[in-house]
């Protein structure tokens, strides 16, 4: 047996795990929802949800991964051999596939827009031409597929290099670059006339907007944005060093991920309000109004390139962790070499992902193929985000609460007692047994439409 790879240091662990959590949702979805549901009030609720939903599940996945040093499926088989608990790992692998089928499509759009920004295609863009460019991409039968292939090739190339030379090295380079670029965009955005309105949209505390739906949205975001329930944190946890402070890593990643989202908001909303655009445009704003806004600024071409480069970084690092889940499973459980596992999984994601890419719009090649009102793209998103992830997270906390030996969990999370975490551990066990399951049940029931808020 070859010695299993581990991340080389605590800094490598932090950057890799943060890279998994940071994704395209940070660039637009989180800032927009924060502004929509009460700004600072929503942010406060979100941070509470991190404590009661995000961190408990993340710590549980870290424990399972590092304790077993195995993939998402093998980890449960080792802890509870011959039982059905390994199906949680199977669900994680399945969720990672489903997410990648549609996420690789959106990442392909980001790569293409980066290419267009470098080429200077947005120099004289208007709102009409920006919408037309985006529309031509999502309805094309060739361009988005080509860029989906390119982004998967980049991710596969990094993963083939391995855990240390691939994932660790790339995330240690890209995450600091990501922060530098986003701060540059923030500085320029905050110096625009009318930027104060964007800041108020993002941070103004308005408890009047805090509805039950807002609280439920915050709970869902706290869970989904941290890459939980999809096997990534179990897989990455299996690469952690033995002396890594799992609680410290989880807390730093959760707070840093939130910081990234707010920095993205500071780059986008002051700019949007300065130019009198609609902040509620949703994800389409990334591809339609942002090129228009940056093209009208001094050095706008450079800033636009920087913006889409940081979006490409977010997409790439998130995809690395997602594809690593089935790669680790296949190489360890099926005995396939890492290179073959990467190529096989990238191929599967590309072939099935084409269904999502060609069904984004009603005018797309497969846009007319729907089932119960949803096309392939929407079904991949719905099944993963609304069913498999919350259900997987719920099963994980139940498993940790009632199956795993509590003393063993304490030893692992405290690094054999070297970390004084008595109060933290008491809070953790109380939360995963009573609070987190209740909240995840509510998230799941709302996701499948049983409860409507």
Mean pLDDT: 88
Q: C-alpha Rg, in Å?
A: 21 Å
Molecular shape: globular
Total of helices: 19
- End-to-end separation in angstroms reads 52 Å
Helix and strand pattern: HHHHHHHHHHHHHHHHHHH
- Tell how many strands the DSSP assignment holds: 0
As a percent range, the share of helical residues equals over 70%
Summarize the biggest pleated sheet. Answer: none
User: Strand-residue fraction?
Assistant: under 5%
Q: Structural class, please?
A: mainly alpha
Low-confidence stretches: none
Summarize the structure.
The protein is mainly α and 453 residues long. It has helices at 10-21, 24-27, 29-36, 40-68, 72-79, 86-119, 127-139, 143-160, 163-190, 195-203, 212-224, 232-237, 246-274, 285-295, 300-333, 338-357, 376-402, 406-413, 422-447.
Describe the protein in words.
The chain is 74% helix and 0% strand. The model has no long low-confidence stretch (mean pLDDT 88). It contains 19 helices and no strands. Helix 4 crosses helix 19. It starts with 9 loop residues before the first helix and ends in a 6-residue tail after the last helix. It has 453 residues and is mainly alpha-helical.
């Amino acid at each position: 047996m070859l010695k299993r790879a581990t991340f080389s240091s605590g800094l490598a662990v932090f950057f890799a795990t943060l890279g998994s959590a940071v994704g395209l949702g940070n660039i637009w979805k989180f800032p927009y929802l924060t502004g929509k549901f009460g700004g600072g009030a929503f942010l406060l609720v979100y941070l509470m949800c991190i404590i009661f939903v995000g961190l408990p599940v993340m710590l549980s996945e870290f424990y399972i991964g590092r304790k077993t040093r195995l993939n998402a499926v093998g980890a449960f088989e080792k802890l509870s051999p011959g039982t059905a608990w390994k199906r949680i790992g199977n669900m994680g692998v399945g969720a990672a596939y489903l997410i990648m089928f549609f996420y690789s499509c959106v990442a392909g759009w980001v790569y293409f827009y980066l290419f267009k920004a470098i080429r200077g295609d947005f120099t004289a863009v208007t709102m009409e031409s920006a919408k037309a460019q985006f529309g031509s991409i999502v309805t094309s039968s060739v361009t988005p597929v080509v860029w989906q292939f390119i982004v998967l090739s980049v991710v596969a190339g990094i993963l083939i290099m391995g855990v240390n030379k691939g994932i660790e090295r790339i995330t240690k380079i890209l995450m600091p670059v990501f922060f530098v670029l986003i701060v540059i965009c923030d500085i320029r955005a905050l110096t625009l006339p009318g930027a104060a309105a964007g800041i108020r949209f993002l941070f103004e505390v308005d408890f009047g907007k805090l509805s039950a739906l807002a609280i439920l949205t915050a709970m869902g975001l706290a869970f989904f944005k941290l890459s939980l329930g999809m096997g990534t944190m179990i897989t990455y946890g299996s690469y952690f060093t033995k002396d890594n402070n799992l609680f410290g890593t989880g807390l730093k990643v959760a707070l840093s991920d939130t910081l990234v989202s707010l920095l993205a908001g500071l780059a986008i909303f002051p700019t949007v309000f300065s130019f009198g655009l609609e902040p509620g445009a949703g994800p389409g704003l990334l591809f339609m109004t942002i090129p228009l806004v940056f093209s009208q600024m001094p050095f706008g071409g450079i800033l636009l390139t920087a913006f889409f480069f940081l979006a490409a970084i977010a997409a790439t690092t998130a995809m690395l962790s997602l594809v690593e889940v089935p790669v680790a499973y296949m190489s360890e459980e099926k005995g396939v070499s890492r290179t073959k596992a990467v190529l096989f999984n990238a191929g599967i994601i590309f072939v099935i992902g084409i269904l999502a890419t060609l069904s984004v719009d009603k005018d797309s090649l497969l846009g007319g193929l729907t089932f119960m009102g949803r096309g392939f793209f929407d079904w991949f998103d719905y099944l993963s985000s609304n069913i498999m992830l919350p259900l997987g997270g719920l099963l994980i906390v139940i498993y940790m609460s009632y199956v795993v030996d509590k003393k063993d969990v304490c030893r692992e999370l405290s690094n054999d007692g070297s970390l004084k975490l008595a109060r933290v551990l008491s809070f953790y066990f109380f939360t995963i047994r009573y609070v987190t399951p209740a909240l995840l049940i509510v998230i799941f029931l709302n996701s499948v439409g049983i409860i409507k808020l």
